[in-house]
Amino acid sequence: MSMFDLQGKVAIVTGANTGLGQGIACGLAEYGAKVVCVGRSDMAETEKLLGNFKAEFLSVYADLSSTASIPGIIKKALEKFGRIDILCNNAGIIRREDAIDFSELDWDDVMNTNLKTAFFLSQAVAREFIKQGSKGKIVNVASLLSFQGGIRVPSYCASKSGLRGLTMALANEWGKFGININAIAPGYMVTNNTTALQNDPVRYGAIIERIPMGRWGTPDDIKGPAVFLSSRASDYVNGYTIAVDGGWLGR
Prior knowledge:
The chain contains 8 helices and 7 strands; from the N terminus they run E-H-E-H-E-H-E-H-E-H-E-H-H-H-E.
């Protein structure tokens, strides 16, 4: 189990106020990490959950639709904990509309949050890894739509496909610094982003029918892969995207 030990490690998790980000933050804390929880809404529920693990944490309010908040996130993390070892780029949004009617605003909002900010936050954290003279881990939260096209979500598909490509590109450049960059591609998960699908009995039933595991995933299902990719256990895994989808892509 020592290969998965995160004692003394400092992790930044974006979108940690709810859903998958909350699950990732709790998973890392359970294995000993100190967690910087970044989000744009109340973090009280996450803070309560982290208290169950007696974890050290810092909550940082930030709107990741813009890169303007990045210097402040780095500064606060370093002031509190003195170093950074792990970054989990989880924050993301989705907009649904027929591609023929999709607006430029919806395109830009999704791309800015899901891809642009993820890159520049990764860049800022990688600079700290190099400055510290330490290895580091970056875990991006991609999607099934990093592999598929989806329906009525063109900017989300483009951003998540781009994030998978970015994961490989950064692994190529930063591997020489001892930085591992990998991604998790969640399948259909019970989160705020999928509320509309969960409430559509026809779509919900069709999705369940295709998943070999016979159920939607939950934030708890992301904990193990996140801990693995953040720990010493994955030191020779680089540039790869792990699907956590109940077998969806295998159908």
